[in-house]
UniProtKB/TrEMBL annotation, chain A:
It is a multi-pass membrane protein. The chain crosses the membrane at residues 12-31, 51-70, 77-95, 127-150, 157-175, 205-222, 254-274, 294-317, 329-346. Keywords: Cell membrane, Membrane, Transmembrane, Transmembrane helix. This is Urea transport system permease protein. It is found in: Cell membrane. GO terms for molecular function: branched-chain amino acid transmembrane transporter activity. Pfam families: BPD_transp_2. One of its GO terms (cellular component) is plasma membrane. InterPro entries: ABC_transp_permease, ABC_transptr_urea_perm_UrtC, LivM-like.
TrEMBL record, chain B:
Keywords: ATP-binding, Nucleotide-binding, Transport. The keyword Cytoplasm does not apply. NCBIfam families: urea_trans_UrtD. One of its GO terms (molecular function) is ATP binding. It holds the Pfam family ABC_tran. PANTHER family: CONSERVED COMPONENT OF ABC TRANSPORTER FOR NATURAL AMINO ACIDS-RELATED, HIGH-AFFINITY BRANCHED-CHAIN AMINO ACID TRANSPORT ATP-BINDING PROTEIN. This is Urea transport system ATP-binding protein. Residues 12-252 form the ABC transporter domain. The keyword Transferase does not apply. GO terms for cellular component: plasma membrane. It comes from Hansschlegelia beijingensis. InterPro entries: ABC_AA/LPS_Transport, ABC_transporter-like_ATP-bd, ABC_transptr_urea_ATP-bd_UrtD, BCA_ABC_TP_C, P-loop_NTPase. Gene3D superfamilies: P-loop containing nucleotide triphosphate hydrolases.
Length: 380, 252
């Protein structure tokens, strides 16, 4: 069964494309002359890198929603927390080059008349610590949240609503100046990452490549999880939760594990996103962001991983184009896209393509052969 | 163990169990005892409390009062569904509930008696003994030829059997089976009775059923429930000639 093979043909193609991008996009940007037709501009590199980070967030969301049936409308919170962890590191790297020239305190703290660094900023001058926190903080929040929610058997729309409330509460908290995360303005004016200028094309190319590699690794990790026996239990939870319970599985522990893992992945995505866009502020916690991520997954096809990543890429590319041409109409277009997807291709782009191939398979190939076999021989 | 002032060796022992939902007494002082390797048929009109009784035994519903004891040592009223399943109580639902998006084989695999904790499950691989168990179980519920099909594609009767197969895969000491013959053809019904009788040679089975022909096929002790408590208990002939049973359930 192709569904349970660790890597099927489609997965290999996806990995191939992502890893090829990791090499070709930076190479084209740095090596080709700007007037070449194949040159990827300095503007495009971080933009594509941003899409890749979103694709990682979409993978994380698909893991909980597509496979475990937990519709999280607050995954943007985990993404933003990862982003803040990275942002704090980047702030500390500014050092005396800030407007106020304080070697330890970020500008906004000097502005607030703070005398010393709050305890929760300690350690963020070290990259490894910030990287660790970008994973652990979202993971810890998801663990605590899930511990109570899943144990109390909060499911369905109620769970979605409290995830939404969680991200909204965090947004309000991060907007406050005395939270110590730069309030309204967030964290920005970054100078260096690991000693390299964040503005330099080489650094941006490296960040892009790192994001592409991280996306490929996340895909492998998610794929490993969903093709394991745990993956089967998780799908069983999605489709028949009480049956799974009566067979003896502690459903809440499975949900907790998948939810926490997913939050950690989202955190890594956020940490890769921030140095490429150059800012992190509380609006990243906005509920609308989390809902948008759900739309990416729905458009691409939930429960397929590939579809989630593809959806993130397609919808965001559409957004970039649309907001350039008709900025006021983007939200209508996004809403329309969601409605159209739900009505016309409920299984998303990947689901629709698979179904098409499945029809071919039934008419042309013995039923035992997999969808992948059909995908391999499109010319026949 | 001493329960309610008396000693019991029963596998399952319910004593004076009451459950109230919003003022409605679903169970009203129900007492029931199932022995090792005993099969028992439970009959009774709708609303008699048959499903609620199963809910209490499997940990889905907490009784307001009374005791539910398994193997004379486990208090079922304090355990959750997963813990009770691990003790060795398996449950088949009234409407067949299988994992429709999984293959027939994977349905059995997930039900096999193994470590249920997430991390061991994440790293587990299918072992040769597990494969043999799966093969044997599929053979027993006659689904060998369908093992690679999605469970959702099976017929109603096949789903019922798959669910029984999943129950057996758990290796339970007690099986609770809710209307196994519902929606089956006559032949399937007869086969199901055979299968349950065979299972009952080594395990205890509680069957809730409306189909009196099926109950007669089983040929076991019958308990008739009415308004949340036991109305009559004994052989099918004795119970079905009971005046009160005829009045409330069988009809004249």
């Amino acid at each position: 069964m192709s569904r349970y093979r660790f890597l099927d043909a489609a997965g290999l193609i996806f990995l191939g494309v992502v890893l090829a991008m990791a090499v070709l996009v930076p190479a084209s940007n740095l090596l080709l002359p700007p007037d070449s037709a194949l040159h990827v501009s300095d503007y495009l590199v971080p933009l594509l890198g941003k899409y890749l980070a979103f694709a990682m967030l979409a993978l994380a969301l698909d893991l909980v929603w597509g496979y475990c049936g937990i519709l999280s409308l607050g995954h943007g919170a985990f993404f933003a927390l990862g982003g803040y962890a990275m942002g704090m590191y980047l702030m500390r790297q500014i050092g005396p080059r800030g407007v106020y020239g304080n070697p330890v305190l970020p500008d906004f703290m000097v502005f607030l008349n703070w005398q010393e660094l709050p305890w929760f900023w300690l350690g963020f001058d070290q990259f490894w610590f910030a990287a660790l926190m970008a994973i652990l903080v979202p993971g810890a929040l998801a663990f605590c949240f899930g511990w109570f929610a899943f144990r109390s058997r909060v499911t369905g729309v109620y769970l979605s609503i409290i995830t939404q409330a969680m991200t909204f509460a965090l947004m309000l908290a991060f907007f406050r100046n005395d939270m110590g995360f730069g309030g309204n303005n967030g964290l920005t004016d970054f100078k260096e990452i690991l000693g390299f200028s964040v503005q330099a094309p080489e650094t941006r190319a490296a960040l892009f490549a790192a994001t592409a590699v991280a996306l490929a690794l996340s895909y492998l990790l998610c794929r490993w999880v969903v093709t394991s026996k745990l993956g089967k239990v998780v799908v069983a939870v999605r489709d028949a939760e009480s049956r799974t319970r009566f067979i003896g599985y502690r459903v809440e522990n499975y949900k907790l594990l998948v939810f926490t893992l997913s939050a950690m992945l989202a955190g890594v995505a956020g940490a890769l996103y921030v140095p490429q866009v150059g800012i992190i502020n509380p609006s990243e916690f906005a509920p609308a962001n989390s809902i948008e991520a759900v739309i990416w997954v729905a458009v691409g096809g939930r429960g397929t991983l590939l579809g989630a990543a593809l959806g993130a890429f397609l919808v965001n590319a559409g957004k970039t184009w649309f907001t350039g041409v008709l900025p006021d109409l983007w939200l209508f277009a996004l809403g329309g896209l969601f409605v159209a997807t739900t009505l016309l291709i409920p299984k998303g782009v990947v689901g629709a393509v698979t179904d098409l191939l499945g029809v071919r398979r039934k008419s042309e190939l013995p039923a035992a052969q997999s969808i992948v076999a059909a995908a391999k021989s499109p010319a026949e | 163990m001493v329960i309610g002032g008396r000693t019991t060796n029963a596998l399952l022992y319910l004593d004076n169990v009451s459950v109230t939902f919003d003022g409605f007494r679903a169970l009203n002082g129900l007492s029931l005892s199932i022995d090792h390797a005993e099969m028992r048929a439970i009959i009774g009109p709708n609303g008699a409390g048959k499903t609620t009784m199963m809910d209490v035994i499997t940990g889905k519903t907490r009784p307001n009062s009374g005791e539910a004891v398994f193997e004379a040592s486990h208090d079922l009223t304090r355990l959750d569904e997963a813990a009770i399943a691990e003790l060795g109580i398996g449950r088949k639902f009234q409407t067949p509930t299988v994992f429709e998006m999984h293959t027939v084989e994977d349905n059995i695999l997930l039900a096999l008696k193994t470590d249920r904790r997430p991390f061991p499950v994440l790293f587990s691989r299918r072992t040769p003994p597990e494969k043999e168990r799966i093969d044997a179980l599929l053979e027993r519920v006659r689904l060998t030829g369908h093992r690679h099909r999605l469970a959702g594609e099976l017929s109603h009767g096949q789903k019922q059997w798959l669910e029984i197969g999943m129950l057996l895969a758990q290796e339970p000491k007690l099986l609770l089976v809710d209307e196994p013959a519902a929606g089956m053809t006559d032949q399937e019904t007869a086969d199901t009775a055979d299968l349950l009788r065979e299972i009952a040679k080594t395990r205890s089975v509680v069957v809730v059923e409306h189909d009196m022909t099926f109950v007669r096929d089983l040929g076991v002790k019958v308990t008739c429930l009415h308004e949340g408590s036991v109305l009559a208990e004994g052989s099918l002939d004795a119970v079905s000639s009971n005046e009160r049973v005829i009045e409330v359930y069988l009809g004249r």
